[in-house]
Specification:
The complex is a heterodimer of chains A (426) and B (374). Chain A is of the alpha/beta class. Chain A has 16 helices and 8 strands. Chain A has 2 domains: 162 residues, Rossmann fold, CATH 3.40.50; 227 residues, Rossmann fold (3-Layer(aba) Sandwich). Chain A has a 4-stranded parallel sheet with strand order 2-1-3-4, with helices on both faces. In chain A, helix 2 runs antiparallel to helix 11 and helix 8 crosses helix 13. In chain A, 56% of the residues are buried. With 374 residues, chain B is of the alpha/beta class. Chain B is built from 14 helices and 8 strands. In chain B, the strands form 2 sheets. Chain B has a 4-stranded parallel sheet with strand order 2-1-3-4, with helices on both faces. A 4-stranded parallel sheet of chain B has the order 6-5-7-8, with helices on both faces. In chain B, helix 6 packs antiparallel against helix 7. Chain B is globular, with a radius of gyration of 20 Å. Classes of the chains: A alpha/beta (426), B alpha/beta (374). At the A-B interface, helix 7, helix 8 and helix 15 of A face helix 4, helix 5 and helix 13 of B.
């Protein structure tokens, strides 16, 4: 029997996500009303992925961090951000991660690579990645992704386009990266046989701007005490919007969240009834423990205000005046996509950390540091020093954010519990 | 009879007598970390560039305050030497984003002001006209900073002279490299590595004189009788000739390499016909690429195939440092490519930076591999 690519996700969407969506929509699960829109977007994204794969009426692009999907959407290419896929597949079924990591390691992949790249490699070997027409990758965030995409290229045989992502954050670096995206357009035109229509790109960017404008308002609202939304909603909506930027459905969802937050702030309704602490969750989520944020919030009255990854869209809107300004906006936005943020210097990371800490009125920090992330382990000590100087309570610990075998849920929760006990006693 | 010049003398700790003598004479010294570095620019500024090593480090306790256990042992040992005050003679550190470990090392060095002059270069990860222009601009900025901080003028003549001097080193090292791959090799692979390490650890004019004399000695002698399988060594950071000596002691002949400290440093010349800064940038991007270069695998593998055929290699040994993601992934790709396209066995050795900590395992694995080749 010929099993289609992504058989696991096809089943998961039908058997897990759709029933869950019904429960969320009926508000029968915690935060259901707020989370339903995110899951709806994820389902729609995967269903379109399956359809494009099966019908082949559009090109499908597997792309990496350091890009947002507007450029693909404008060229009628179905965008599939590889790095979100492992988290979605692992959601609710942690053993799935073990399976693909094991496949990759048995294949010879060194265990110390980032779990994302190991997972993607295992999924590729097991035909659980989309059959992409081409891959677009960038040189950030890390060594693991840099070599990972060379490995994916060898295994998949797909055409691959590579963008050089500058490691600094200057106007010159942004202009350089805009040039890289301009060259990418040439590649995409070659692959699709279609020219980029600037008006269509403007339309997509304007739609994307509407979503990010609402998101910026949402971030502003999160500064309120008590914080209007739980951390779970922040993270889940981020997962949903990575693949959906530039679609009206995303805009509607983010505007719904914003309106809900406005109402919550107006009525003094917080995610945590008696907000005692405001947590900056500075790095990765614990994917195999979806209830982690709720547990932190309910157990310690500690609102998880924002995390490092989902705050990437706190940038200016894309200037849609002309193609040049749009590419510059996409460059700035793309370079900030989640892990791509790690490409900059430790000084810059610390500067952003302090900005986020101040902006959101946080009073403590949790840094889950993945064992595969050489960046964070080279920054953490410098961050610790800054936190010590400023008397910022910091809880940092090692884990694998998707592979629960490295540090299980109980151990992570124990570490956090110890931290809050210390914070509470001053 | 002239005494044999042994380059291992300068492949120990970087504070060798050549460096200290330079310093005592009022010269300035700057450390750099990777084969993708603009050495000629430093030399043209009157600064002695020495490539950083952790040789001489015995532990990483000082560095461990700043770097995690998942950061590679080369970076931790080298930082340890800097933090321990062993390298206070350094006037500057030329830092880069060669890999994530070195990127964060750069941050620590800059934040802690571990040398009076710290400068970071963002070396592109693809080779293109745009990346060349960007790197060239960065090197011009570096030139201006060097001129300003050290009150020197880096003239076109000085740059041209520096490039000619460095190219001379590369030509001499290539000459040495060829001698190890003869039917009856007149030099060992470990000695070639010692030469390359020494080249990055002393003034190039002094080195060129010493190497010329040594090559004359070698070329006047007869080669050794052919012995054991002919091996090619590939991999990342390996600056310890003793590592290769262990393999050679088991009866192997190391006839070629693709090491960051080996042929990558000398197989490509800097173009002397074009603008010198652009030429330096061009060489940084276009010499035999490290796995950090996104578009480099086809060229790396083609070069490997060419070397295997040219030097009649019986087996390939790939060494990589634990926690080096770049070489970790490269190894996996190589396994597949070598199996499909080369009928040559491949041995992969994972190691810690300090050779002494893994000699037993190295000997066991290399011995077993050599037995399969005989």
């Amino acid at each position: 029997m010929n099993v289609p690519n992504m058989s696991y996700m096809r089943d998961k969407v039908e058997q897990q996500f759709k029933p869950m969506l019904q429960l969320l929509q009926a508000d029968l699960l915690p935060n259901g009303r707020l989370l339903a829109g995110a899951l709806d977007l994820v389902i729609a994204h995967y269903e379109e992925t399956f359809r494009v794969m099966d019908e082949g009426d559009r090109k499908l692009c597997w792309y990496e961090f350091c890009l947002t999907p507007e450029i693909f959407r404008a060229m009628d290419i179905h965008p599939f951000l590889g790095e979100v896929h492992p988290a979605v597949m692992t959601f609710g079924t942690p053993d799935v991660c073990w399976q693909y990591v094991d496949v990759a390691e048995e294949h010879g992949t060194p265990p110390e690579l980032c779990v994302l790249d190991k997972f993607l490699l295992g999924a590729l070997l097991e035909k659980q990645m989309p059959s992409a027409d081409f891959i677009v990758t960038a040189s950030a965030p890390c060594d693991s992704s840099r070599i990972g995409y060379q490995m994916f290229e060898q295994l998949s045989g797909c055409p691959v386009y590579r963008l050089d992502a500058p490691a600094d954050d200057s106007p010159e670096a942004h202009a350089y990266y805009a040039g890289e995206i301009r060259k990418l357009i040439g590649f995409l035109e070659g692959q699709t046989g279609k020219r980029l229509d600037p008006d269509r790109l403007r339309e997509v960017c304007e739609e994307s701007n509407r979503a990010t404008a609402a998101l910026l308002e949402l971030f502003e609202l999160k500064r309120a005490r008590p914080c209007p939304h739980p951390g779970t909603v922040t993270f889940t909506s981020y997962m949903a919007h990575l693949n959906s930027l530039g679609t009206p459905n995303l805009t509607r969802y983010v505007e719904f969240l914003r309106d809900d937050a406005i109402d919550a702030v107006r009525n003094g309704r917080g995610a945590v009834a008696d907000e005692q602490h405001r947590v900056l969750w500075y790095y990765v989520p614990v994917v195999f423990d979806f209830e982690m944020n709720d547990w932190v919030e309910q157990t310690f009255n500690a609102a998880v205000i924002v995390d490092m990854l989902s705050s990437f869209l706190r940038e200016d809107p894309i200037d849609t005046k002309n193609v040049d300004t749009m590419l510059l906006g996409l460059a700035r936005r793309g370079l900030e996509v989640t892990m791509g943020r790690l490409r900059v210097s430790a000084a810059k990371l610390t500067e952003r950390f302090l900005r986020d800490y101040a902006d959101f009125g946080a009073d403590c920090v949790v840094v889950p540091a993945p064992v595969g992330c050489k960046h964070v382990w080279g920054w953490l000590s410098l961050l610790r020093e800054v936190c010590r100087e400023r008397r910022i309570p910091l809880c940092a610990f090692d884990l694998d954010w998707m592979d629960s075998r490295v540090r299980p849920v109980e151990s992570i929760r124990g570490r956090i519990a110890d931290f809050f006990e210390t914070v509470a006693t001053g | 009879m002239e005494e044999r010049i042994d380059f291992r003398r300068w492949s120990g700790p970087i504070e060798n007598e050549q460096v200290l003598e330079w310093k005592a004479g009022g010269g300035r010294v700057a450390g750099f970390f990777c084969a993708h570095a603009p050495e000629e620019l430093l030399w043209a500024a009157g600064i002695l560039p020495v490539r950083m090593r952790g040789t001489g480090s015995e532990d990483t306790s000082a560095a461990d305050q700043y770097l995690g256990a998942v950061n590679c042992s080369f970076v931790r040992h080298t930082l340890n030497r800097v933090l321990s005050g062993d390298l206070v003679f350094l006037d500057g550190l030329l830092l880069s984003n060669s890999c994530d470990h070195l990127r964060r090392l750069s941050d620590v060095c800059t934040a802690k002001r571990l040398a009076p002059f710290c400068h970071h270069i963002d070396v592109p990860h693809v080779s293109s006209d745009a990346s060349l222009a960007r790197l060239t601009t960065q090197l011009r900025v570096l030139k201006e900073r060097l001129e300003s901080v050290f009150t020197v003028a880096i003239t076109g003549e000085k740059l041209a002279a520096a490039i000619a001097l460095y190219n001379r080193t590369r030509v001499l090292l290539s000459r040495a490299s060829r001698l190890r791959s003869e039917d009856a090799p007149r030099i060992t692979g470990s000695e070639v590595l010692a030469m390359a390490v020494a080249a990055a650890s002393m003034p190039k004019d002094r080195f060129n004189g010493l190497l010329t004399r040594r090559l004359d000695q070698i070329e006047a002698a007869n080669g050794a009788a052919p012995r054991g399988p002919r091996l090619m060594i590939i991999g990342g950071e390996l600056d310890d000739p003793a590592y290769l000596e262990v393999i050679e002691s088991l009866g192997a002949t190391i006839v070629a390499d693709q090491l960051c400290w080996g042929s990558k440093t000398f197989s490509t010349l800097t173009d002397e016909r074009i603008d010198p800064i652009e030429a330096i940038a061009r060489r940084m991007l276009d010499h035999l690429p490290c796995p950090r270069m996104l578009d480099g695998y086809p060229r790396r593998f083609a070069s490997l195939v060419e070397a295997v055929n040219e030097h009649r290699v019986d087996g390939i040994v790939c060494e990589r440092l634990k926690f080096c993601d770049l070489w970790g992934g490269e190894v996996e790709m190589l396994r597949r490519s070598v199996k499909q396209e080369l009928s040559v066995p491949l041995l992969v050795l994972e190691r810690d930076y300090l050779t002494a900590s893994g000699v037993g395992q190295l000997r066991t694995r290399a011995q077993a591999f050599l037995e399969t080749l005989e």
